Amino acid sequence: MRLHNDIDEPLFPDEGADNLQGVGLLRSGLKLNHLRMIVAIEEHKQVSAAADVLNITQPAASRMLTEMETILKAQLCERVSRGVALTAFGRAFARRARTILLELREVDRELSALKSGTGGSVYLGSVTAPAISLAVPAIQQVSAAYPGIEVNVRVETSNVLARELLAARQDFIIARVPDDLNPRLFNVTEIGIEKACLIVRKGHPLTEKPVVGLADLPHFDWVFQPAGTLLRRRIEELFIADGVPLPSTVVNTSSILLTTAIVCGSNAIAPVARDMAVFIADVGAQAGEISILNTDFDIDIKPYSLISVKGRALPPSAKLLYDLILQRSRMLSPD
């Protein structure tokens, strides 16, 4: 997305540039789009995908990459089997570029808050369970105390949220650090364990059983989160450990709304966070026409944490919400 009309101009004009560090790069024509391009390449691992993000053609993106390498006098990426990978120079440049773009976003946020007289905005990402039990009460509290604050919440899997956090699309997240990301990039404060359960429609054949075992489950359709997500993996581990065949008919979706719709309209089974299941079951509309199965096994997921990026200070409004969520998590802790 274009920030200003002068996006294709050098990051700074020549006038007064002698007083700035990095004058060589600026005089050589470093542009904001160069910074966006290297960050997009790092995120998507393909020049074509980065071109789509910047809404330019692939040849234009390739020329931009050549421009960057000429300006920096270093190779920034190399071709691999499924796209491109950043070199050490490329990773260093991408890290600094991301910081500059983040600071520009914070300038925009701060000035917008000053102009409007509001209290600023917060970008929070969360996995399902703490979104219900922690984020919602904290948001209600901060909104009542500071009516000008705008809170933007995204509920997704940890894999998605952690990458959005690194890309500065979230201020902080309530999630888990994915196994394929370097944990040293993050500040992590563990705040709770997510418990899950199995939901079915009211009147489902399994609701007639007082206790449901794993062997009762494979014969039904299932609605799972995408492959590789923690809840999906945990359910599969339970089946494998008990020697029970995995379900053969599966719909994959990260949407709790679609999950609920499928469950209510069929004999499908779905694993969901228990807090979410209780919330849905208490709703009086059709979306609430579900039952929670009483199983002879527990579904406990890896603990979730408050996560921010190391070296990136939270804006005041985000720090306020962060502290309220942390405070509430300690109130709910059995310890």
TrEMBL record:
<dbReference type="Pfam" id="PF00126">
    <property type="entry name" value="HTH_1"/>
</dbReference>
<protein>
    <submittedName>
        <fullName>LysR family transcriptional regulator</fullName>
    </submittedName>
</protein>
<dbReference type="InterPro" id="IPR050950">
    <property type="entry name" value="HTH-type_LysR_regulators"/>
</dbReference>
<dbReference type="InterPro" id="IPR036390">
    <property type="entry name" value="WH_DNA-bd_sf"/>
</dbReference>
<dbReference type="InterPro" id="IPR005119">
    <property type="entry name" value="LysR_subst-bd"/>
</dbReference>
<dbReference type="Pfam" id="PF03466">
    <property type="entry name" value="LysR_substrate"/>
</dbReference>
<keyword id="KW-0238">DNA-binding</keyword>
<comment type="similarity">
    <text>Belongs to the LysR transcriptional regulatory family.</text>
</comment>
<dbReference type="InterPro" id="IPR000847">
    <property type="entry name" value="LysR_HTH_N"/>
</dbReference>
<keyword id="KW-0804">Transcription</keyword>
<keyword id="KW-0805">Transcription regulation</keyword>
<dbReference type="InterPro" id="IPR036388">
    <property type="entry name" value="WH-like_DNA-bd_sf"/>
</dbReference>
<feature type="domain" description="HTH lysR-type">
    <location>
        <begin position="30"/>
        <end position="87"/>
    </location>
</feature>
